[in-house]
Amino acid sequence: MNKRSPFPVRLRSTVLVFLTHNMALPVLKLVRRPQPFPYSKEELQAFPEHTIGKELLAFLEQRNLQLLPHYAKHDIKHILLEYDTTDEGEVCLQCFMLGNRHLSFPVLATVLYGILTMPEYWSRFRKAFARGRRSMPIANLDWMGILKDDTRILINKINSHENTPA
Q1: Alpha helices in the chain (DSSP H)
Q2: How far apart are CA 111 and CA 98, in angstroms?
């Protein structure tokens, strides 16, 4: 996002970050009791090239993000679905998940927020939803088990279902 964004766009972005990082993440940690991420940055650095684990580290470093123990699964989704961490990318990721038949409060809240506040991206949100419908289900992937898998192979596997009818 441009640093000289108009006030409403900056406000929209600030609200989205607040809702996801300051409200949803703490609540989800209490409700879901997610499995803590088993690797440190140093351990990810030792992963083979082109693996999801190694690319997770690069993804975080390129964006100057921290490795959050209960948020790594979300960052892996960004990598596998190839949506950036922009406001648009966050909502596209959740539209994909909704289309992929994953219903949860964070998914529904983010999609609704995006639809209400980001009309300029509606066509991209629809495409992400449709892509989620056509893609293989990903909600039940073994997120920690795939870290040593080749990223490109898994992306292709997810996308290979896109040519089949929903």
Answers
A1: 7-17, 25-31, 41-45, 52-62, 72-81, 87-99, 105-117, 122-134, 151-160
A2: 8
Q: How far apart are CA 109 and CA 16, in angstroms?
A: 10
Length of the chain in terms of residues written: 166
Give me the amino acid identity at 1: M
- Return the closest-CA partner of residue 68 out of 34, 33, 37, 110: 37
pLDDT tens digits, residue range 12-30? 877 777 777 666 666 666 6
Mean pLDDT of 37-64: 96
The predicted model scores a pTM of 0.84
- In angstroms, the CA 104 to CA 33 distance is 15
Sorted by where each begins, the domain ranges of the chain are: 7-163
pLDDT number for residue 23: 65
The single residue listed with the structure tokens 């509606």 is 122
User: Would you put residue 14 in left (φ > 0), alpha (ψ -120 to 50) or beta?
Assistant: alpha
11 vs 87, 94, 117, CA distance in Å? 11, 20, 10
Closest C-alpha among 111, 115, 101 to residue 166: 101
Give the angle subtended at the CA of 61 by the CAs of 91 and 127, to the nearest 5°: 20
